[in-house]
Amino acid sequence: MRTLFLNPPSYAGFDGGAGARYQARREIKSFWFPTWLAQPAALIPNSKLIDAPADDLNLQEVIQRAKGFELCVMHTSTPSFDNDVKVAQALKKAYPDMKIGFVGAHVAVLPEESLNAAPVLDFVAREEFDYTLLEVAQGKAYQDIAGLSYHADGGVAHNPDRQLIGEMDALPSVIDVYKRDLTIENYYIGYLQHPYLSLYTGRGCPARCTFCLWPQTVGGHVYRTRSAQSVIDELVRAKALFPQVKEFFFDDDTFTADLNRAAEIARGLGKAGITWSCNSRANVPYEYLKTFKENGLRLLLVGYESGNQQILNNIKKGIRLDIAKEFTKNCRALGIIIHGTFILGLPGETKETIEESIKYACQLDVETMQVSLAAAYPGTELYRQAVANKWFDESSLVRNDGTQAAAIRYDHLSAQDLEAGVKRFYSKFYARPRPILRMLKAMAKDPAERRRRLREGKEFLNYLRGRTDKPESRIEEPAPEKEKVAA
Ligand code: SF4
């Protein structure tokens, strides 16, 4: 079947792909690459990938571009599910013969509920879905495809689970799909140089953080990796294909989970003169950091989460504050930039621990940082705790303008307290002289950087002024049939 992979339209600027840990509109314009869709797209000949939010496509435009496809696979998530169903309904209305399926952690955890909530879907592909989708596209009978759930006999049928992929080198590269279907200049992440390009070199994370979605749902707790040489070869090819890219980002849950392999890849990239960055835990020893830095590492994206040790223990982070401080000091000494991420509202949070985290972040003084609200997604231990303890607020994971909402609250800490905490966190961190000076220096060096920082600064101030912008839906009612055909 001619297959369309679709990251569906939603709110303007909504980053809904699996690369986004918290699907929402960001404080500043941000889009991760839709790598989880690009991977099966690379497996299926003659397919196409459309990333509607990044390309700023509305529903009508997507419907026009979907013409001629027999199968459409959409990546969904808990906060975007209802919106994505509306997109599926509009596609089915326009093309009644098109088969439509959803993938992603939400349907992997709740296949029956998802299919019951969305009769428009033909199937959902659970677990790792790459080969499941290949078999669907090849026209194999649904009942013979492992990992598939589908409507059958007035109910829902679930086939046996699909095993996790062991041979990662067998998966084709996603960069050819990027080249064919994406405009890479449309992808921004505030702390990465622009344009950047991100991909995975492995899946799964051995850590057990209770809030973290991917390892507990789709990726698993074994870090399954591609060989170092295949990663180096791919990056060398990517550099030739995308000479404009300033930085390559390894979006593996934790690229540093296998330090020796990471060092081997680093040495290969160093020889090729490639600038790279990656996700990392705050516990990488100095000698590895040094090897990475000497071989092109620019930035680490580090999940510090909280400045309170008890909260880190509560969420099974497996990191000590003193180790994280030492790691941060080492990075600074070596000239490795850190973007630190924090979460407010995790179990054990109080007004006092919020202040502790703010103070901790200021002490660490990482280059840039972001603060998210704790989000309990189905399939995670945090979700089960939140259900058992009735921590859920009535609000959903995103507000009606697409920004993140505090879905968890406690008797002693309201959703409003948490949202105010996020703003105070940003204000206290960024209103210090050092971050301002860093920003000014970067802007003085490079006119393109100046333009970008001014835009982001404006967006950020708008965010601080209020999360209540007018909703900007990109899924307004489709145009009449006649207009669509003419287009
Ligand atoms: S280390 Fe990072 S990727 Fe791994 S489980 Fe914890 S939060 Fe998730």
Describe the structure.
- The chain contains 20 helices and 17 strands.
- The protein folds into two domains: 3-158, 3-Layer(aba) Sandwich (Rossmann fold); 189-431, Alpha-Beta Barrel (TIM Barrel).
- The relative contact order is 0.11.
- The chain is globular.
- The protein is 41% helix and 15% strand.
- It has a seven-stranded mixed beta sheet with strand order 4-1-5-6-7-8-9, with helices on both faces. The chain has a six-stranded parallel beta sheet with strand order 10-13-14-15-16-17. Strands 2-3 form a two-stranded antiparallel ribbon.
- Mean pLDDT is 91; it is low at 478-487.
- The longest helix has 19 residues, at 447-465.
- α10 (228-241) packs parallel to α11 (259-272), α11 packs parallel to α12 and α12 (286-294) packs parallel to α14 (321-334).
- β2 (14-15) and β3 form a beta hairpin.
- By secondary structure, the chain is an alpha/beta fold.
- The protein starts with a strand and ends with a helix.
- The protein binds iron/sulfur cluster.
- Iron/sulfur cluster binds next to loops.
- Residues 205, 207, 209, 212, 215, 253-254, 281, 303 line the site of iron/sulfur cluster.
